[in-house]
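Lab meeting notes turned into a lecture example. A postdoc, R.K., suggested we walk through two folding results consecutively so the class can see how the record format repeats. The first protein's sequence and structure tokens come next.
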Amino acid sequence: MQPYYRYIPVEKEGDDHISADQERRLFDRILKYTGVFGSVQGVTMMVTLVINMVKSRLLGPVGYGITESLNRSADLVKSSTNLGIATLAVPEISRHVNDADPDGLADKVRLTRSWALLTALLGMVACLMLAPFLSRWAFDGDSGYTVSFMVLSLAVAAAAVTGGETAVLKGAGMLRQIALSQLFSGLLSLVISVPLYWLFRFDGIVPALALTGIGSMFVTCSYSFRRFRYKVCPFSWSHLRQGTGMIGFGIFFTVTAFFSAWAWSFIAKFLTAEGGGHLTGTYSAGYMLVSYLTTLLLAVTDSEYYPRLSAAGGDLKDAHRLMDSQATAMCMLAGPVVILFMLCMPVVVFVVLDYSKFQESVMLAQMAVIGLYFKSVSQPVAYLVLARSDSRIYLLQETVCYLLLVACVMAGYRLAGVVGLGLAFAVWGLMYLLLSLLISRFRYGYRMSSGLLRLFVVQGVLVATGAFCVFEQALIWLLPGAVACVVSVGLSVRFFGTHTTFFSSLLRKTARK
């Protein structure tokens, strides 16, 4: 009799199951690069936590609120002007990596850089011109941050260039360089931000944001320039028009990115209006911790899985198999991580932030992180729309997604305050998962395999148990919460022990020593 948590590979039409060896190699690859990018993001997260420890003690919740409002408003300009180059150029480049003609790859890289440079100039000019409006929008009619947004126009331009160079690295399969650029960008932000916050307090926020963005651009460029010499033709229409297909999708991408940035900016503005800078800072600090964990766990999906899915996007059977395997692996990793995060959140806030000022952020983060469990499955599924450049469906999917986000946050906060705000992100994660599965089912014929569905339900029950235990906020509930965590870890270890060579390789290496 098979154990109830055994994974069953997705079936191919007209073919048997994929072989156990193929399945093992696929899960080995996922686990390997999850470890690589997870480790890098872990170091980066630790660096960022140090920065936030300094920020929380020097600036408090109000400083977080100001930073959140500046970031979200600047993101609105970035998203509205970058045409999605950082994402849409990846499949364009990845399809030419294995070509016999290296000139085709070099031409795609030059095309990507040319459009990235143009969007950088567009973003900088837009931010400069809209600075007074952005200041009044973000800070309830206060135009005193106009100069701040003018300075942040440099960060907007740098982000567009960084996005183009990151697309080059991802499309060319330069995974080691991506990891190193992320690592050194994080370390550079530590070197830049901490002295500025320490010396100038609130006046150091804008210079820190601007210089961090510029520094990240130089770090990323230093890696991509080694493989591809920097060549651009930003004013040659005969060259630029080769990317009109990508830019056509980019217009749809920009509209959806605008909705995304608008949604997050609206949330910051809504919370500021409801509870002032203190509430915005509480939300920002709590959700910041969740977003770091999300990046830590799902970094491999964006950096390694998406280019691989893009290369297979034309073959739906192969794409479905990749989606199923990636979603299964992410589900089994996310379950124990989410439960452990919920149980340890009070300690994390005590160490990272000033607990007396950010106590409300604990429950917000504990409830919001449930959404990460749903996202671990929804993100591998939702990426198929991007991989196939299905512009209208992408517009529909993402527009509905962010309208749901705004509705969930407003309803959650007004019904249950800060706790409801955290639950809103969990509910939104579930709704986005259902939306992604619905679109993938009717548009591309994708259906979750019975093995993935079974594992998702089992780990989901354990996550729900952990959430209930922390929600009760009593020490007596820590024991069943810890039991749920141990069971979840045990299931994940058993799964990866069966479907990868990781543990057997580790045992062999240990035995040799």
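The second example is placed directly after the first for contrast:
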Amino acid sequence: MTSTMLRASRVCARVVAPCLFIGLAATVRAQPRPTSNLRLAAPITTWDEAIPLGNGLLGGLVWGGGSRINLSLDRADLWDLRPAAPYGTEGYRWADIQRLVAARAEDSLHMRFDDPYEQVPHPTKLPGGRVVLTLEDGRYIQSFLLDLARAEAQVQLTRGTVRGFFGTADSVALFEVPALRRVDLVRPASLDKLGYPPATVGGDTVAGVRTQWMLQRAAEGLTYVLAVSTQRTGDSSLVAVSIATSADGADPLAIARHRIADALTRGYLLSARRHAAWWARYWRSVATLTVPDTALQAHLDLVQYYYAAAARRGTPPIPLQGVWTADANTLPPWKGDLHNDLNTQMTYLAAHASGAEEAMRGWLDYNWKLLPTYRRFARDFYGVDGAAIPGVMALDGRALGGWGQYSLSPTMGLWVAQSFHLEWQYTRDADFLRDRAYPFVAAIGRAARALLQEGPNGRLRLPLSSSPELYDNSLKAWLPQSSNFDLALLHWAFGALDEMATALGDTTAGQGWRATRTRLEPLAIDAASGALAVAAGLPLAESHRHFSNAMAIHPLGLLTVDAPVDTLVVQRTVNQLRQFGTGEWMGYSYAWYSAMLARSGRGDEALRYLEDYRRGFLLRNGFHANGEQTRLGLSNAHYRPVTLEGNFLALHAAQEMLLQGWGGVVRVFPALSERWRDVSFRDLRAEGGWRVSAWRERGVTQRVRIESTAGGRLRLRDPFNGAVAEWNRADLRRVGAEYVIDLPKGAVLTGTFLR
């Protein structure tokens, strides 16, 4: 036993309370599962308030009332991929945008780059269909529940309970239903808007198993089948549901039937046991946050659930509505597409810290696989080498168009590339850096660098710029000067590429990226307010939903409160966003602003805006609706299209309040509200390859545990604010406000507050 361990042992013997707390902490670590469930009273009358289930590929929404249970089905790769416009061909290129903007030809701009998105219904995400379960007379729905730990839906009836889940490995949804009278399949009426023929329906009964199916022929050779089989045993029926497509094989009907037959053979108990075991492993692998707010705690648990329900490695990434496409006889809002001017990036921002590796690697794998498509887009649309990513795109990576300033902005790919850089920062995986992160970011960076032109002042700039989504789709939105949005992404990208190339030992490449960055224009700061402007000579002058001018603060972290020269700019910019009011904000704006406040060290305000997000912009099942759903005066918008990035941003904001690791320094509880006196987290990840757990009681940090997952030098901002603490390692040294230690991979540093 080392002397340090002996000191810790004597402390525990002498001071009872800390030792009891350590025991409690160990118990919490041993039970990493959500502490809340989603409970909803019946009836649920609309799809967007339903119980969400999913396995990354298949998704389902459970809702209904009376004696009818609706199961709205989705599959992540169900897409109509017919292009709406020939982007990258004559008349539909970046050079054409520049020419039309110079000519002030607004009508022509809209006709080529916006009208196809608005007027042509495809490309679009497709709904899968609906299964309606009708109960026998005398059985009625009383309530709905989502058991987060088991990812199981429960529908409480006047007599009995319906249970169901989406299997983790077999692409089948399985439900156990007492007193089932009939099953009906409903084709989405919205498919008529795409010119599809009616579905082919059929059914049969073999050995007591009733099977029904609906086969839909879509566009470009896509065929998909929704099939359901029912097997009755006593008073209950086992219902198995699946969607198979022509991407699975030549005969999707046979494939779907085979899957559901296997599920029926296994039965509910065995399948549920395997399913629950998968989810138990998931909850053990991800971070757990415990906050002193029951409603917020429930929401944070729910969002962590989304990462596994809506995304897995090997499945498509999370689009605007995830695997829960609207079931409202309309095509999904904004075509359910992949919006890369905020939505996809913010959807995955919390995954790094939470340890949602399946979701994160799925997103990274998807973009890596599309790199050849992104290279073609850079060549055909922008006329440069490298790679470029559309700001709005379909599942196959092709541009959809839309407001051209943002849907075809040349810097959106840099924001996507941040996911690769952050993954390396959080894992310090040298192989990932060499094989994926640097090659991907470098490809995007080369295209961006090739588009830069020398301005009158000798600085490099883009020929056209914009600041999402300021001035909407007007000519005014095309800025002749560089926006801070574009500048921040360019400065970040070339700085990150310098860092990555240097880490790989390629100093020549690093110097090249560094030289490009030094020639960029500096970020524009408004002289009157001292805040980040929209662009040089163009201060922010109104409430705006997208904090595009403040990208340098968050999420890019170019300006920080740790740097004395930046502190005033950061605080003035953050204050100015609030001063213009929240009238034009959406739900995601509140969650983003909360994260920005946390990054600025303003915990009380961060909590306030996070609470406003939860109170004002959630439907009763937790889905983020862009507009305010109350009349609290939080926003002028009161519409309710569901997009999920606001949910994930809320989780990220809470993470930022509890742990930050930017700039090479780990900060434990860096932005807590005074109202969060008792709070803890387990296994949050921090940049640098650190896995951190910490507990706080009565406003005092009690214990910190940091595991090195990669090996390296830890710089830890004193988590005990100068109080005496006991550490388990004698080689820890104090340097100013930080503790510094070199930890090999797998080593653990623990510190305990001494009363």
